[in-house]
Amino acid sequence: MNSSESFIACxxxxxxxxxxxxxxxxxxxxxxxxxxxxxxxLAVLCPKSTAETSAALRLCARYAVTVVPQSGRTGLVGASxxxxxxxxxxxxxxxxxxxxxxxxxxxxxxxxxxxxxxRLRQVLAPAGLWFPFDIAADPCVGGMLATNTGGSHLMRFxxxxxxxxxxxxxxxxxxxxxxxxALRKDNAGFDCKQLFIGSGGGLGVITGAVLxxxxxxxxxxxxxxxxxxxxxxxxxxxxxxxxYGDLIISFEGLSGNAIRYAYRAFPDLPQHFEASGxxxxxVLVELASAGLFxxxxxxxxxxxxxxxxxxxxxxxxxLVGDEADYWALRDAVPRALMKLPRxxxxxxxxxxxxxxxxxxxxxxLLSTQYPGAVLADFGHFGDGGxxxxxxxxxxxxxxxxxxALMRLRVAVYDLVAEYGGxxxxxxxxxxxxxxxxxxxxxxxxxxxxxxIKRLLDPAQRLGRLGMT
Amino acid sequence: MNSSESFIACxxxxxxxxxxxxxxxxxxxxxxxxxxxxxxxLAVLCPKSTAETSAALRLCARYAVTVVPQSGRTGLVGASxxxxxxxxxxxxxxxxxxxxxxxxxxxxxxxxxxxxxxRLRQVLAPAGLWFPFDIAADPCVGGMLATNTGGSHLMRFxxxxxxxxxxxxxxxxxxxxxxxxALRKDNAGFDCKQLFIGSGGGLGVITGAVLxxxxxxxxxxxxxxxxxxxxxxxxxxxxxxxxYGDLIISFEGLSGNAIRYAYRAFPDLPQHFEASGxxxxxVLVELASAGLFxxxxxxxxxxxxxxxxxxxxxxxxxLVGDEADYWALRDAVPRALMKLPRxxxxxxxxxxxxxxxxxxxxxxLLSTQYPGAVLADFGHFGDGGxxxxxxxxxxxxxxxxxxALMRLRVAVYDLVAEYGGxxxxxxxxxxxxxxxxxxxxxxxxxxxxxxIKRLLDPAQRLGRLGMT
Lengths: 468, 468
Prior knowledge:
The structure is a homodimer. Chain A is an alpha+beta fold. Chain A contains 15 helices and 19 strands.
């Protein structure tokens, strides 16, 4: 037996045959992510518990095998799928899907890394509780923590890190670090769990977590606001925050171009605008309240606010009420843009005071150097996030080649850096952003990163971080 | 010159004579903390910038001097003052008190580590903004981040960690780690700043930060609620959360004993209860709202809620309205208890579902083994925090000696561990909790702690962590 065969034989013996997948067809589901990127794995290991995860990692260490931790495969940066070598092992956490103790009085729940958001939602709804992360995809808890994801409500509830009370993780050598307390505060020493949150699985594999929950709001009201210009949106947001405070849970931005692509891809979408009258930029704001407000009275107040905002010339107008339709439009945008053949799609973040300047700079770049290319961005304006999406049509003279697309990508990232932004708002680095990491991360920070990586994973066998 | 004299001479030359304090009288202010604990330092270094902090740390490294980082000296665990050896150097960050860019649209501000909370409040008020940490003392930003503090609003706004966008820190060897972005999300690699938050200054010295701000609420209403029993408080809290959601920013608990000590120490305090009628336990709840509510209508709604809660037999009654008076009582409690001669004072935290059980266990411990000792606890019920305060009167037969007090302290900490709590909710470990750290922290966690400590501070010269 060669080393690979010996590894697989050993895995079957130590973990049990049903925990080791090697059949090519069976593996392929794990080798491909949400965006269709795929590689080829030596095998997929599917532990059902923390102890089995520890055994799997010890085995991989013994055989010096590189491990790609994986749960929901909804990431954007290629970090959860193997490369093409056929030598990397996928460690799927999807089997650790136990839903543990729901402590309603503490507003917390203990869950395994493989629990999907959709399932968590079902479990929590009867208790009137909510894990307040609204994400277009249906990720698992483990991946959400490993990438420290956000979603549409980040401006109100913070990133996932802010809602994690406890973490259980397994180091590359199989050591289990148990930090699973259900405490809102615990400063009895450095907070180890922070190392694993946002580490992309590269410092340790998260197997379980205790999550802090929110009360599920009973009244939700959304409105589509039509600002006079992009640069006046911060003023609009300040006005709304002064009035509604934390009742605002989403403040999303949609460019007119993004809306047009959505209507083109999904003709059945409710049409909110005359075909000729799609605005340059639209804001989708969502308010949510506990029992004190009924949706009806909250909506009445929003109507009143809209009238005031129009009279102050902060907006041209607004649509209030059909929230399901507005969110259908919002959700259709990324799905429509994904379908286009030549698209650059970046997930970046700024101080929200700088979003307009950045956007103007991108538009200037396109008009001068890539005429024909279309900025069809959308994103979470309220937390400074922007899904910069640039569509390069077939007839774009300068953008048609792969090299031209790569150059454009770098040029936009350079602008992100120039305006003080992050080249990865929510998805980590991964193979896709490896060159951006090298280009934009200060040397001192990279040295701290690599020294922590060497400390916890000396043989550098965990994860596809892209942080080299 | 001996080594100490040579160090001081060199410090004067490299940092400037006004940055080095050695006069015994001048030093003594820095050697003593809020609680009067004191040691003796070799010198106090007072850098005015990050570059000077880096120079100071390089110098200390060269002379192999132990450094005690310090800012507001309001900690509870002795970590910010030197030991008695006269060989440790205090590094005071109070001189780095620049208030930098206030970005109103982004709701963020850049501040130096030495900026006091009171000053920050003054700077933010005109902009209608707020750093939502309400702490009895007046700490500096640097110390708040280093200890990851909380305060009365933690249940609503999270710990300080949740409100930090960027950190600048200096490692023991003088390396500056700049992570000062003003971004609500940035996952372009492991989040280095999390290492420094809550590290007690032991992994690096925080010199500056970008803080996320909240809108300052315009309407605040407080009420003193008199629950029928401690064990029914979680139900009361759930009811209030279902009605008011995030309008609840504080939910504090005060034992009747704590209230009695406050009245005894401060006879001028407004008397809310008949002398004979101080309840066993009182809840102080605070609601805060942005512009949508006026205080008057919010108070009217609270009156209505109180009537409903009384009719549901969740509370016996309530006082609504004189919030300044209620908070005067709340603030008087710790000041009164500090003055008593024999007191055990612990800052612990639990899942809030377990606070009652823990409290009953402490009361049983006292009645069976320390008759005469009085549980006079108070704390942040809403986030699971409890300031367990046990007063041992002069005539207590079993508690009068220092040894007996130490035994009682350990016995209570054992109960904290038994009920899944943390022995240090907000203040870190420090010399005061060193033995608790050894007793309650799992070996694996301690190994991770010590390996990270060795990585960032190989000579172990930074801070008085108590984590050995």
